[in-house]
Amino acid sequence: MNAPATMNAIVLEGHGGLDQLVWHEDWPVPVPGPGEVLIRVGACGLNNTDINTRSGWYSKTVSDATTGGAYDEVDESDPTWGGRPITFPRIQGADAVGVVVAVGNGAPEDLLQKRVMVDCWLRGWDDPFNRDKTGYFGSECDGGYAQYAKVDARNVAAIHSSLSDAELATFSCSYTTAEGMLSRANVSGDDTVLVTGASGGVGSALVQLAKRRGATVVGLASPAKHDDLRALGAEVVLERTPGDLKAALKTAIGNDTVSVVADIVGGSYWGTLIDALERGGRYTCSGAIAGPMVDFDLRTFYLRDLTFTGSTVVEPHIFNDLVGYIERGEVRPVLAATYPLEEFHAAQTAFIEKRHTGNIVVLP
């Protein structure tokens, strides 16, 4: 195997604050098993899933907004995206990009020395459409916050692109999440899509991918990030929480409603978003960083013939579709900053503060 015996890694040792993420310089390099490949990681992007898992925010005992800090009480039975316990120690990191340096028995040898992106979603390959048989790279198995990572060969795609490893590491989690949301909502060129949290990793991906489908995009973000979102293709950019959203929409697009809301924020503004949906409109959600508990008026839901879709596990084709979009230049990376892996605490702190547009990446 073309790898050393030990490596540098950031290891999550339990639920809690940043102190649970511990730097190691002598962590064992994983050995690829049958059908697996070993990747020398060139870059790995940060994402909310890792923060929410570390803090235990997914637990039903937590009703607060995502803060990245420790919570007073976390039910150990449901602290992950899938509502199951996590095994510690765990190396997190879903958005790994690197070079295949070894293959296990039965894995394709033509992947050796190829630069690859990792598909975050681990499948039950005997039944790949079964969402109950899915896991997540960096959650149900060790991920990419290390110098080396192993994964099933069916979870990687060779990538042919002039983009750097760091740029490529902004894509997998955010863009497959965004494409899954838009697919569930059947977004087309006939739609006007309102994107919350539009400057974040998923939000900026939603802007680009909705534009790719021909939709008109309205982004909600802080004013300092408006020019960034216009550069990504948003026709209209409004404050994060306009006091009168419908009036702001009427002024900006000539209509006080939209056909689709793509939401990753939730929280107290949620009802205002729903009120801005046209009759027969669609709401799709893949996050609740401002808080998971909302006031839901069922009359608005059924009297206006609305459709709501939750979106987490994406269909298998979406990752490969994304690789094609990248190679054809149909989407572009939004790389906010890079940090050495040993400065992971600083990187995740910056990610949590959300003063950036796009994504933050660590370099092993």
TrEMBL record:
Tell me if NADP is a UniProt keyword of this record. Answer: yes
What would be an example GO MF term here? oxidoreductase activity, acting on NAD(P)H
UniProt superkingdom: Bacteria
Q: Does the keyword NADP apply?
A: yes
Q: What is its EC number?
A: 1.3.1.86
The family database entries (Pfam families) matched by this protein are listed as: ADH_N, ADH_zinc_N
Q: Which residues form the Enoyl reductase (ER) domain?
A: 16-362
Cite the InterPro entries for this sequence: ADH-like_C, ADH-like_N, ER, GroES-like_sf, NAD(P)-bd_dom_sf, Quin_OxRdtase/zeta-crystal_CS
| The entry's keywords | NADP, Oxidoreductase
* Entry protein name: Crotonyl-CoA reductase
Organism (species): Roseibium album
- The gene from which this protein is expressed is ccr_2
